[in-house]
Every structure is written in C-alpha cells, then in structure tokens.
Amino acid sequence: MEVRRDVFQAIADPTRRAIILLLTVGALTPNAIAEHFDSSRQAVSKHLQILTECEILKQEQQGREIHYHLNAAKMQDIEKWLEQFKQLLAKRFDQLDVVLEQLKTKRK
Amino acid sequence: MEVRRDVFQAIADPTRRAIILLLTVGALTPNAIAEHFDSSRQAVSKHLQILTECEILKQEQQGREIHYHLNAAKMQDIEKWLEQFKQLLAKRFDQLDVVLEQLKTKRK
DNA sequence: TTTATGTGCAATTATTTGGTTGCGCAATAG
DNA sequence: CTATTGCGCAACCAAATAATTGCACATAAA
C-alpha cells in the first residue's frame, strides 16, 4: 500500500470498481459505502483512500461526516489510453488496407 | 501470480499496457517484445502469460517461434465497464435536471 | 458532561505481485 | 550429429497489496 497510484491500478480491484459505480448516484459516507460490501469499514476506508489519492474521489467534510464523491473527469485517463489503443489499431488496419491495395494493383 | 485473471488486473501493470500498445502493430515473438523493455525475457514472458490467460493475447506457434498477437475484442471488456459507468453518471445528471426543473417550476 | 457515533491511522499478517536465475526441451542451423 | 536458438517452467525472493484489529480523536446526541 505504498507506491503505485494511478487510475489503472485503482480500477484493478473489483471492490473499488463497485465503489466507483456506487458513487455515480451521489456522494456517500464511508459507513454508508461499507454497508454495500462484505468487507469491514476499515477495509473500505482503505479503498477510499486509494481512490482519493489517485483523484478518482474527492472528500468533503461535513461535521463529523466525510462525503466521498466522484471526480468523474479522472476516469478520462482510462478512456484516453483506450483511445490511443484504438487509434494505433486503426493505423494498423490502414496499413493492412495499403497492403491489400498493393496486391490489387499488382494483380491487374 | 496465481489466481486473479481479468482484463482490469491485466492492464494495471504499465509494462503490460506497453506490450498491448506494441502489439497493435502486429504479432511479435517474446524475444522481440523483450527487446523493447529493460526487463528480462522471462519477466516479459510472465506478462505475456498473464495477458494470454485473460485472453488479451493469443499465441500462434510457428516452428520454434511463438507469435503473440492481440485479441482486440477482449479490450471491449474495459470499454463496456466504462460505458456502464458513463451511463450511470448520465442517469444521475438526468435526476439533477429533474431537480433543477422542479426548482424552476416552484420559483414562478 | 457523559455517551455514542463517524472516521482516520498504525501495526500486523497472509497473499499476490513482479522479477531473477537456472533448467530442460524442441526446432533450426552448421 | 552437434551447437545454437527460442521458449516455457519451476524455484525463489523482495516488495506491494488487501484485510483485520485496536486505537485515538473529534463531533454530535443524551
């Protein structure tokens, strides 16, 4: 629980993915979140800490309660990478198209 | 290196993400892949194994060489989750719209 | 004020990870 | 046939992870 802290590592854990989906509905306190899971409040709290550290979540103190809410923008990090992947893949198919085109040209 | 095997865990590692991007260009052998990284062939091989187990990669034996190539379809697992996330988020904003609409109505 | 509640934090532990080294084996090259 | 090359696999290791337990400390309720 020390060094790695990026969105990809954050969503690697199924509980954290579930927390993210849960919080799309709105901000919740650690206790409220923990109720949705089998794990203890402290375990959930650690996940919240990790998610907060990589800026997927933001805390908002209200009296003695802390409301965790989504920073949806951060999820774009994943989308960005996926987009890059798709672009590269598209490029590859472009090259394939070029090859096919060459074959067609040679044939005649 | 035993049990967990899903796409999210697979892309959590930066080396594995790099391998995925690298293979968008086309199939490569473990040695060819390893040349692109600092880690040993065996280390890379382990990553390939993980990526293969979760079906992001597929092997194709050719003589004593093994060509690893992408199963791009598998990446949709990530996209699917992201899509679900965005849908839920959109729903939330719909509800916000409803609230704002109500406020507007009450005001007059 | 006293008690209960909501939460973070530290220490401990079991498990998983990512990596290295060394081996064996099949396919190819000489 | 012999040497080399390309790989996977097993054993081992350090570091990271996930979860528990036990506190401490505020804030809010009695």
From TrEMBL, chains A, B:
Pfam families: HTH_20. It comes from the Bacteria. Keywords: DNA-binding. Gene3D superfamilies: Winged helix-like DNA-binding domain superfamily/Winged helix DNA-binding domain. Residues 1-90 form the HTH arsR-type domain. InterPro entries: ArsR-like_HTH, HTH_ArsR_DNA-bd_dom, WH-like_DNA-bd_sf, WH_DNA-bd_sf. The keyword Phosphoprotein does not apply. GO terms for molecular function: DNA binding; DNA-binding transcription factor activity. PANTHER family: TRANSCRIPTIONAL REGULATORY PROTEIN (PTHR38600:SF1). This is DNA-binding transcriptional regulator, ArsR family. It comes from Algoriphagus alkaliphilus.
